[in-house]
Amino acid sequence: MNPEQISILEITILHDEIKLSYIGLTDLEIRVLKSIFTLAPQLKENFILITPEFINEADVILVNADNPENILEWERVARINNLTSS
Q1: 1 assigned to some structural domain
Q2: pLDDT of residue 7
Q3: Which residue range forms the structural domain that includes residue 34?
Q4: How many domains does the chain have?
Q5: CA dist 34 → 21, 39, 56, 60 (Å)
Q6: Interatomic CA distance for residues 76 and 70, integer angstroms
Q7: How far is Cα 76 from Cα 69, in angstroms, rounded to an integer?
C-alpha cells in the first residue's frame, strides 16, 4: 500500500494518538478544529492539537497554503525534520 492510500483510521490504529499542528491558520480555523474535537469524542481520544511551538512533535501538519510565507515555513520544517509530504 502506498502512503497516499493510508486512511486516518489506519493511522489511528498505528498510533496511540495523532499530534496535529498547523502553520498559518487563523484563530477562527483553530477554534473550528477545537470544536470538531469537542463534538466528536472519538476524534478527541485520538487527536491532540498542538501549537506551532511544538510543530517538530506533530504527526500531521495543516498548512494554510494561501500565503507564500506559510509555504516557506512548511518547507523549512519539512527539511529540518525529514518530513514526508503530499
Answers
A1: no
A2: 54
A3: 18-81
A4: 1
A5: 12, 9, 20, 15
A6: 10
A7: 11
User: 68 in a domain, yes or no?
Assistant: yes
**Residues in the chain where the model's pLDDT stays below 50:** 1, 11-12
Q: To which residue does cell 495543516 refer? A: 62
Instruction: Tell me if 4 is assigned to some domain.
Output: no
> What was the pLDDT predicted at 12?
47
The length of the chain, given as a count of residues: 86
Q: Round to whole Å and give the CA distance between 79 and 56.
A: 11
Cell output for 2: 502506498
Please enumerate in sequence order all residues whose Cβ is within 8 A of that of 33, keeping only pairs 6 or more positions apart, or say none.
Answer: 20, 22, 25, 49, 62
49: left (phi over 0), alpha (psi -120 to 50) or beta: beta
